[in-house]
Amino acid sequence: MTALRLEDLKQYSDTLRTREGKALSVRFVEPRDIDELQHYFRSLSVRSRYNRFFGAISELPKALLQDFLEVGERDRFTVVATMMIDGFETIVAEARYALHAETMTLEFGLSVDDHWQGHGIATALMKNLECRAAALGAEHIFGETLRSNATMISLARKSGFAFVNHPDDWKLVRFDKEISIAPKDIPCASWRLAALSRQAESPSASV
Ligand SMILES: CC(C)(COP(=O)(O)OP(=O)(O)OC[C@H]1O[C@@H](n2cnc3c(N)ncnc32)[C@H](O)[C@@H]1OP(=O)(O)O)[C@@H](O)C(=O)NCCC(=O)NCCS
Fold this sequence. Notes:
The protein is of the alpha+beta class. It has helices at residues 34-43, 46-53, 62-69, 121-135, 150-158, 189-201, and strands at 14-17, 23-28, 76-85, 88-100, 105-112, 140-146, 162-165, 172-178. The chain has one domain (6-201): Aminopeptidase (3-Layer(aba) Sandwich), CATH 3.40.630. Coenzyme A (COA) binds at residues 48, 51-52, 109-112, 117-123, 143, 145, 149-152, 154-155, 158. Coenzyme A binds next to helix 2, strand 5, helix 4, strand 6 and helix 5.
């Protein structure tokens, strides 16, 4: 469905910038990230973890950690944003997204290390997720957040998302944005290429 070359995931790496211009690399998670990813979640503040998972957890349960590492499985993907800190590639943000092929929507959730919040990382990561959504042919991108999460709500509003009530849970709000961008206009180079090759392979595909 996704037409991604899962055996060569490294080609889908992007460089993003914080608001101050510091470079971040965004790539699919790899098996070697398992300890660092768990460390990242353990290091988040209680509040950030609560906002990310809508409940109190101190770390990723084993089964969920395993799910996070299985890129492409059931059209679900995890990306990490890393920075070189003191000579080490360090995870400073993560996002997980799923392509719902039946509705051609891409659902995502994300978090940014508390020390790096407020530097524009989530703004940049969400733009990158929009590129990924467009390349996969999604017509909408959406996320869900607790109504109490003013930061995420403000960020989604500034990023052009509209809000709708969650169908089943009054504590959550859904934010949604239409994706209507031609493959040649996708602003992330690697995803523009992916979309163009997908279009070439299947010219009738609506992207
Ligand atoms: C929500 C979250 C992802 C934002 O990440 P971030 O990298 O700090 O966001 P940005 O720096 O790109 O900020 C973008 C906008 O968010 C809003 N924002 C950021 N920090 C805020 C705060 N403390 N209070 C209110 N709004 C805030 C602002 O509108 C900001 O834009 P501005 O700086 O131009 O005013 C981050 O706070 C986080 O990881 N929270 C925990 C997990 C979570 O809530 N995930 C969302 C649900 S899946």
